[in-house]
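Posting for a labmate who doesn't have an account.
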Amino acid sequence: MYMALIRGIALFFGVFTLCNVITGTLRGGFDGNGLWVDMRFWPVWFEVILLCCFGAMMYAYAIRPNVSDMRRRFTLGSLGLVLCAVVLNAIDVEQLRQGGMIENPLPFNLSLIVGVILLVVMMQAAKRNIAVRMNKRQVMGMLTCAMTCCLIGSGLLFTYFGKTDYRRQADAAVVFGARVYASGQVSLPVADRVRTACELYHQGLVSYLIMSGGPGDGDVHETEGMKQYAMSLGVPERVILKDEQGLNTRSTVRNTVGMFRALHVRKVLAVSHSYHMPRVKMSYQQAGWEVYTVPAKESRVMRQMPYNLVREVAAFWMYYLKPVQA
């Protein structure tokens, strides 16, 4: 069963990496492999070749692990280089955290976890005379493990990246909307998001706040309720802009990208709840923009959080398969 587990992990990394390389080449603007490893310190051509080799070797290892010495060397070589990149990522994250550039309440480093997993696979791949044949139960175990990696990987991404605060000097902050009641009162999620955005303005980090949302429960539009709440927190009306067609994440990204160009905005912060941040980040990347995410400071734990997380995982993969077009 242990071998099925290792091969399942290899299958996940192989398929996911190759799919990202292919879609990144065809679509451009979005590198899905950036979700788990950052190789921007290497030339683009080397990164693409390495990821292609790594993905192919992982897929081949999952299907047929007992191979020639030549393929084993290719497998270990590509694994080793990717592992080096992941370790460098882990070091960079810790340096940024120690330097106060990012904040995260969690004690673990996501890159470190990925590194440990790859190291375990590498140690197993270095062995010779591995049994190749697997019965149906072991094959199902391998496939189940690959799917589990996808789910656990999503959970780790949402937990770690979503809760990391990347606030820094920027031109504008986009605030993603949520429910505004018929009375005009903002819901708790909206209040948390707007309050966090106002904090960014008062810290002098942004010059504009862009409120994005759709119709409210009554006559008061979500963006108007958000604007009024921000003004009650001391933000002047002249710096608050509204995107009244932000019916969902996709439309908010598309609409605000147009506003960025009109305002000559170069650097952007995005404010929403932590579970929403991975999809926000990915959507802007798909539209050709690199934004920095700032999770809303929650005044209390939302009762619907488990439901929101499950829904967000499904939405994330839907957006991954059907990217935002700017």
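Reply:
Got it, the structure tokens are right above this. The first helix runs from residue 2 to 27.
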